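pipeline: protein-struct stage 2 | run 1193 | Methylated-DNA--protein-cysteine methyltransferase
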Amino acid sequence: MTDQTGAGPGPDRTGPVDLAFAPHLTEIDPAVLVRLRASLAERATGEGVLDVAYRIVDSPVGPLLIAATNRGLVRVAYEREGHDLILQQLSDRLSPRVLEAPGRLASAARQIEEYFAGRRRRFDVPLDLSLSAGFRRTVLQHLGEIPFGVTESYTEVARAVGNPKAVRAVGTACATNPLPVLVPCHRVLRSDGSLGGYIGGLEAKSLLLQLEAAAA
């Protein structure tokens, strides 16, 4: 049957479509699809899944759990915080791939040992601050600028980060610091010179301050 112009099948044609005029309907080799899917899956795994490596290091303030992503050291935790709890939190917040991998953290472990031995005043390892955000991260960035052996008050820190009234928020940022020792929240005291709080306990804070005073 032809249409009224005699040009062949009309709109109701059911015959095969000439693929020369519809290249997008050309069938793709199944083997090519398999390779494409495998490539995309590999890329997603490499780019979308973050590994968290950790190890335990001994120190004068007790065992410290240190953990790092591919961006840098992300967590330092005192034993009193509960290392198993910290590992679960890292899994929940960062990645389910939390692996014990001492080799990846050799440099950080060595520098922590040198610090407690009085041979190091600054840490030279990349830090990943992804566990802090907003004002808390701003405070942590300032804490890294407080020199070895020097202390500031919570009020002075609040003023330094541009929010003089946020003294209590500064205290909260210090109390939730995910990288104690390396990000030295122990160098922040109350205005009257008393210790205030500390994530590792006041005994640990006092020991760190004494260590730095002696080394300085």
